[in-house]
Amino acid sequence: MCEEKTAADLLKEKLCLDQKHVALVMQDDEINEADAFCEGYKDFITLCKTEREAATFAENAAKKAGFVPFKASATYKPGDKVYYMNRNKAIILTVFGKKSLSEGVKIVASHIDAPRIDLKPNPLYEDSDLALLKTHYYGGIKKYQWTAIPLAMHGVVMLKNGKSLQITIGEKMDEPKFVITDLLPHLGAEQSKRTLSEGIKGEELNVLIGSRPFRSDKGSDLVKLNILKLLNEKYGLVEEDFFSAELEMVPACAASDIGLDRSMIGGYGQDDRVCAYPSLMAVLECKAPEHTVVTVLTDKEETGSDGNTGLNSAYLKHFIEDIAKQQGVEARDVLRRSQCLSADVNAAFDPTFPTVHDKMNASYLNKGIVVTKYTGSRGKSGTSDASAEFMGRVRKIFDDAGIIWQVGELGKVDEGGGGTVAQYVANLDVDVVDVGVAVLSMHSPFEVVSKLDLYMAYKAFRAFSLS
Ligand code: MN
Ligand code: MN
Description:
Blueprint: H1 7-15, H2 22-25, H3 28-47, H4 51-64, E1 68-69, E2 81-86, E3 90-95, E4 105-111, E5 116-127, E6 130-138, E7 151-158, E8 164-169, E9 179-180, H5 189-192, E10 207-210, H6 222-235, E11 245-251, E12 256-258, E13 264-267, H7 270-284, E14 292-298, H8 315-326, H9 331-336, E15 339-343, E16 346-347, E17 369-372, E18 376-377, H10 388-400, E19 405-407, E20 417-418, H11 422-426, E21 431-436, E22 438-439, E23 447-450, H12 451-466
Parallel strand pairs: 1-2, 4-14, 4-15, 15-21, 16-22, 17-19
Antiparallel strand pairs: 2-3, 3-14, 5-6, 5-11, 6-10, 7-8, 7-11, 9-10, 12-13, 13-23, 17-21, 18-20
Helix pairs in contact: 3-12, 7-12
Bound molecules: manganese (II) ion (MN) (2 copies).
Residues 271, 302, 443 line the site of one manganese (II) ion.
């Protein structure tokens, strides 16, 4: 049966925006390619749950792909690949292009930190024969989501002798895990009267770490003592070592496919490793681009980008200054002609909570990579607003490369808001726009993305870098 198209149908086709499901646009072999790409990604987010782990992963992958540590004293030619590690928490990967740096560089910047629960500097205590750890949460979390789920401990301890100790407990099947306890509903009547944001308070995020005492007839805090004994036997730690440590509690589960159709991925820390991974893969296979490519995996975005490993510091600017100097170019001339994709996630429309979004300007799972012209809150405060000119350029790059993309705004006007690293790069006099993957349950211990959107991100970062 074939119905004639009306004049209105034809005009609609010509004039109206029509955003199709990616799976209806992509070819079968490309969908298979995308699914295969996602297997590597699942391993990455299962393995890398802190910025340090992600930065180390990137460094090792870069070395394998022929990248060498950046030297300010060296001179580089087109196709040369270097990386700059910033304090083991942020990393810049660069492939030198055929054009002079005076024509600008192509920056793709994502972040590799994610919301989590940090241990306090003096965390270990005993109460009622239980050993517990005091914590201070990192980034924006709904605290109640972090109770009664298995947690793993990841981090680093600097010992008195100057040695650094990497710790990961709770990821392997036979390893113990940790948990933050919650009240049973039977006795939760008073707790239930609290607002959702106060349901679990910051000081109630205490991690259970032990319950058996050091066997002794006398003495107090013997359960705590037994935990210290175990930490000392296994790692040589004493209580004071917590001061020079960064120990972080993260969800102890692996990433997995979601849905009977296996179309989605569930896992921890996908904001923003779902952008970091495809940008890393894109730069690793970059040969001799026209413009020099600068891929940044940064830290501290979730706490506002402050600190020397966040993009509100000068480390990216200093790196650009260093490479500019080698070519006898002023860094400011490089920066003002540079372009950047701030590669960060957006909140996918959730049909269970439709009222927070403007449906026409929300991003959706499976509609391709999201281009977010501005973030911020209220009257566009705390954001860089990408210009029509730059939006036009990015649109053309994506369309020419067959990238499926959508526009997205983070919620309704005055509904809330959020920021990314875009403003900090833009403040360096660079053209920037946010581009990333739509995420469900963002900032929860188990976030969800679409496989095909992730693959589109990879294609988009590659096309932008090579343009
Ligand atoms: Mn983010
Ligand atoms: Mn975030």
